[in-house]
């Protein structure tokens, strides 16, 4: 019983750490998008409003991926639905 609980807790901690790796992708993607938006505004300053609006929508969608990974990590660490599945 105690060994199974330790295995589930350890696996949940590893899973939470892997879920937090999901935060790397949005950071890189958003930085790339902002850089390209600045480049586009530099080339055509009159399109600043359209480029900025599109960039913010894209960054919000990209950030949601990182937030999902964070929520999964919090659930695995603190809500841990797998502890109740241990028989005994």
Provide an overview of this structure.
The chain is mainly α. The chain is built from 3 helices and no strands. The mean pLDDT is 90.
How many discrete domains? 1
Q: Please state the structural category.
A: mainly alpha
How far from one another are the termini? 6 Å
Q: How would you sum up the major sheet?
A: none
The whole-angstrom Rg is 20 Å
Strand content: under 5%
CATH architecture, by name, is: Up-down Bundle
Q: Which residues form runs of ≥5 with pLDDT under 50?
A: none
- Quaternary state reads single chain
Write down the overall geometry: rod-shaped
Labels describing this entry:
88 residues; mainly alpha; F1FO ATP Synthase; 81% helix; 0% strand
Question: Would you summarize the structure shown here?
Answer:
The protein has 88 residues and is mostly helical. 81% of the residues lie in helices and 0% in strands.
How is this fold's topology laid out?
Blueprint lengths: L1 H19 L3 H20 L4 H32 L9
Helix pairs in contact: 1-3, 2-3
């Amino acid at each position: 019983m105690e060994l199974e609980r330790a295995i589930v807790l350890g696996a949940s901690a590893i899973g939470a750490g892997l879920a937090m790796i999901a935060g790397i992708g949005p950071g890189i993607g958003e930085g790339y998008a902002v850089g390209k938006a600045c480049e586009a505004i530099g080339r055509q300053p009159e399109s600043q409003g359209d480029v900025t609006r599109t960039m913010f929508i894209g960054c919000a969608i990209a950030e949601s991926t990182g937030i999902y990974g964070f929520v999964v990590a919090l659930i695995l660490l603190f809500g841990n639905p797998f502890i109740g599945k241990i028989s005994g």
